[in-house]
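User: We ran a pulldown and think these components assemble together. Before we commit to crystallization trials, I'd like a predicted model of the whole complex to look at. Sequences follow.
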Amino acid sequence: MRDFSSDHRWLSLNTATVRKQGDLIAIIDACARHGIRAIDPWRDQVAAVGLDRAVRAVHDAGLELSGYCRGGMFTADAAHRIEARDDNRRAVDEAKALGAPCIVLVVGGLPQYSRPGSVASKDIVAARTQVHDAIAEMLEYAREADMPLAIEPLHPAYAADRACVNSTKQALDICDQLDPERTGALGVALDVYHIWWDPELMPQIARAGKDRLLAFHVCDWLVPTKDILNDRGMMGDGVIDITSVRSAVEAQGFAGYSEIEIFSNDWWARPMDEVLRTCIARHRTVV
Amino acid sequence: MRDFSSDHRWLSLNTATVRKQGDLIAIIDACARHGIRAIDPWRDQVAAVGLDRAVRAVHDAGLELSGYCRGGMFTADAAHRIEARDDNRRAVDEAKALGAPCIVLVVGGLPQYSRPGSVASKDIVAARTQVHDAIAEMLEYAREADMPLAIEPLHPAYAADRACVNSTKQALDICDQLDPERTGALGVALDVYHIWWDPELMPQIARAGKDRLLAFHVCDWLVPTKDILNDRGMMGDGVIDITSVRSAVEAQGFAGYSEIEIFSNDWWARPMDEVLRTCIARHRTVV
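Assistant: Here's a predicted model for the assembly, 574 residues in total across the polymer chains.
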């Protein structure tokens, strides 16, 4: 396993971590101040400053991207399916312009939450079938653009409203079905927050292998969790044995960024520089 | 599948559902008023009125039990392990006195939450090993008392603080290891709240079979969930296709109670009779 204790060369900042403290330009400036070399920006943050300006700012700062957040939300009723498809194609184009190595896919839960306005459903099996088919469709477009897709399994707490792919196994099953040759066009984004509880985690990481491990995200699970979406912890403040998961991922050959993504009302309320200083310290000590 | 639309013969009330509105005696009186024929009482509610009085009240009301909540919280450091063992033996004795058909086991998460005062750990793999060993030990005592143990897999949102058995597969793996002959001494308690999201749910229910299906609990998953423990929904108010799960369980031969267990700050704030009337109406229409 790589030694992170003496620098933060392999720290990437998911820009949602400080989304309340400033826009994407301000975040990129802060990364420069703190010697952070990579980010994973969100689409709404890019849109807020304009794609061209975002591309220039990333380039001028000499930043790499560790991903682009996010594509997906595939589940929709018939009336909203074209919208979902086109939206995902635009995500591919944006990721390409930004030089992202992959698009992170949050696949959507039940259609009424994934694409608001869709007819309500309780059929999670149907949602999963739709996700499979929509990824197959998006993959054709993404392959042409040479843009890998990284399916992110989300914690089962989000099965209804954010993603009905809830385990690494499920994500890898889709990869095996749609890209059996392991071309690199399809893989997974593993976030310790979503997967740490999974009894099958270690064998599934081994099954993924280097070809399928496109992104690795860290934060922590707090006890108690006060908000199901926005109370994620700074690494070291919760119960996840983060190092053991990173060790398993790196044992497969993963050598990319360790991306910090923290949705937290607490951390959003602190100054950006304090958050980044803390991220760097924890990256060196508990990641 | 049984038709529940015309009566509530197979409704059981988990007494936690109205724990804030009255003590166990008041709940038993309310069940009599509403023609509810079975309950699943919690140990603290029994202790609050005294075991002997609880036994008499259950008997005098002609109530059946659908389970006894709860044994478990097995994970502990060395200093707290004897306490955990003895506590679970007392649970067996109480369940026997009350005439319960099984004890529901919530197995515990990390030791510092399961048995407060235990040395903190982030090792969920070790916790799971400890759960396996402790169930094996409890099973010896429970077999002598002829008291079946029902392992309840809990939603992964509770993996840290309440139960590190988080899927039906995991619970059944323990059953197969400790009771390969399917004697009826060990099985599972399935609560739709905890398992509805699981992609492997249907095959695992089939794997369980009648022998292992000792209890069936219902409530609903609300979107958004405002509190990770105490914002469970009344059946029909959330996203779970409850009928499809009951259908699968009954297809295996399960013919017991459909037990309503709702931890909800909202429902705890309403009069007991209103809650029970709503439970009965929903039992007939959406369970």
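The mean pLDDT of chain B is 98. That may be worth checking against your pulldown data before setting up trials.

User: Thanks, that helps.
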